[in-house]
Design brief:
By secondary structure, the chain is of the alpha/beta class. 36% of the residues lie in helices and 17% in strands. The strands form 4 sheets. A 7-stranded mixed β-sheet has the order 2-10-9-8-5-3-4, sandwiched between helices. The protein has a 3-stranded antiparallel β-sheet with strand order 11-12-14, with helices on one face. A two-stranded parallel ribbon has the order 1-13. The structure holds pyridoxal-5'-phosphate.
Length: 361
Amino acid sequence: MKKHNYSAGPCILPQEVFEKSAAAILDFNHSGLSILEISHRSKDFIAVMDEARALALDLLGLTGKGYQALFLSSGASLEFLMVPYNLMKVDGKAAYLDTGTWANNAITEAKAFGETVIVASSKNDNYTHIPKDYVIPTDADYFHCTSNNTIFGTQMKSFPKTDIPLVCDMSSDIFSRVIDFTQFDLIYAGAQKNMGPAGTTLVVVKESILGKTGRSLPSILDYQKHIKAESMYNTPPVFPIYVSLLTMQWLKEKGGVAAIEIENNAKAALLYTEIDRNPYFIGTVNQEDRSNMNATFLLEDEAHTPVFDALWKEAGISGITGHRSVGGYRASMYNALPIESVQVLVDVMQDFEKKVSGTKF
Ligand SMILES: *Cc1c(COP(=O)(O)O)cnc(C)c1O
């Protein structure tokens, strides 16, 4: 039986994407060849890459606005390094917002390059909110933020206005909500949270911000080299890119980011309403900063853990155990998770309430 998959990443993808991917492994485009055995320079794969790059820009509303989309090897963690390599000037400095583990990892890499200013941090509150009042130094080479904090379950609902390049790690909420993406100069997202399987990272960059550091870059880390090579500087991760393309096509057919945002809002409202209503659960983060992608919550009484765990497992739910730094539970509701799965979880929470309250009296 197909599970209700709440995994934080790698995560659920649309069922039709799994089916088309499986078919392409056996016979890609009726070529008599598997997608796994063709050259990345073949006509068929170049078409995949071109369409994937164009569709990523299209879904973000960035077509024809000076941006390039790249599908690079490796994960978002490599971008923690590539961003300072490509944007931080020699003797320059960068500004970062610290909203969680991933933001922190990005800061660690930037520090290896030069002066790195942390404009604000919610670390002392175990990242249960997004810092709001901070000043971005106007002489920094760029400002880096994380739109959705996968581990802690917070999400930036607005972004600061700044004249310096705005860089955003959107790994866990890319293509999930409508934002004016033109406010960003560089967006990156590891595929495995909302777009495809692990192995590729989408980078969307405004070309005009590149090539200004005075630094010599290793070729493989140079965005300009990747752009020039049309995202084929070296052998790209062919299959993760193909699966990402299928997911983007699925999204486009559904009506794009605006259409999925409506579904994502409905899913999040359904679950958070129950977390707030049900006296046996406690949300872990400030309400105004709650993520629509990753909902984190605790049991009011940890002693009831075995009861709750048995109920959700029995209901066919998978992957809701919280990250070790938060504990409790994390329900990741990425684009492909149907609202029916959220209803199953809400029903389980209500069954749990009945069971536990029954034992109390
Ligand atoms: C998962 C995640 C990362 C790290 O991604 P990798 O592909 O494993 O390197 C970075 N940032 C955010 C926000 C994430 O959720």
